[in-house]
Amino acid sequence: MTVKKRKSAEVRRHDIIEAAMEIIRHEGVARLTTRSLSKAVGIAQPTLFLHFGNKSHVLLALVDTIQERLQQEMAGLGLAQMTPLERLKVVIRAHLNFIQRQPGIPRLLFSEELQSGDPLFRDRMNELVSFFLNFIAGLISAAQAHGEIRPDIVPQQNACILIAAVQGLAFRWVLSDQRFELTEQADAVIVTLIEGWAPRPGS
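-> structure tokens emitted (203 positions)
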């Protein structure tokens, strides 16, 4: 008789987070419940509660995982070898690619749960957005210091506009049921916004 090896707590948590992202990807945050999640993972609800006390804890862990993966993505781009402006363009392309590979992210961002639901989830998601906003603002500032972006561009403000453009594309992508390649929109964002920040002749 073969004895089935019990998964470690770390592996089980990983399985739960991946299953949660898949439920959100296909059905939305509203359909993510402890019942649907335990069924998707193939465990009893009491076992799920051993790893995550409730749905709120699952959502918080999801945001932590997204930030960890985003940081890993950025670290693997080889940004140190590029000029600041090249870094900014590469990051935007990589970010759209990151969202396209994980379609559950836009559903999290535009969920009712985030807008008027769990305050802990909202605060944690705001931390993630702020982290990325500051990262983009830092790239804009570095490009200004390098003479690649005009000095009158306000880094924080324009980083916010840039992220809003990316989120708007992601929202349209979700509404269209992913009928276009999100990554193909990167050049439109870059031409419309980033290249519009270039120093003007004679300035």
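The two ends are 80 Å apart (CA to CA).
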